[in-house]
Write a structure and sequence with these properties.
5-stranded antiparallel beta sheet, 5 strands, single chain, Alpha-Beta Plaits, 101 residues, 3 helices, alpha+beta
């Protein structure tokens, strides 16, 4: 029988950090949206870098853990976030800001 520890150590997980710009609906705050983003699968940390109340946008630094490469992982996070959090109207990530952690 295979031990659980052996299975876990065989898996290859990558940790990435990148900048994400989100646009939200006016009925929710940036802080509330950050808390919702922290609940997304694979998201480790969310840190607000800047925000603009006049157009309801925020730039956030996000750290994620995944088995995928960086860009497909952030693309999947975008897809899941837009489908699970209706308050997010736009989600953009900058591939040039993604770094391995």
């Amino acid at each position: 029988m295979i031990k659980l520890l052996k299975i876990l150590t065989e898996e290859e997980y990558n940790t990435y950090q990148g900048l994400v710009r989100i646009t939200i609906s006016p009925d929710v705050t940036i802080q509330e949206t950050g808390e919702l983003m922290r609940a997304m699968p694979g998201v480790i940390t969310v840190t607000q870098v800047s925000h603009n109340d006049s157009n309801n946008t925020a730039v956030m630094k996000m750290k994620i853990i995944t088995k995928q490469q960086a860009e497909p992982a952030f693309a999947k996070l975008k897809q899941v976030s837009l489908s699970k959090i209706p308050q997010i109207t736009k989600f953009e990530f900058a591939p040039k800001t993604i770094e391995v952690k």
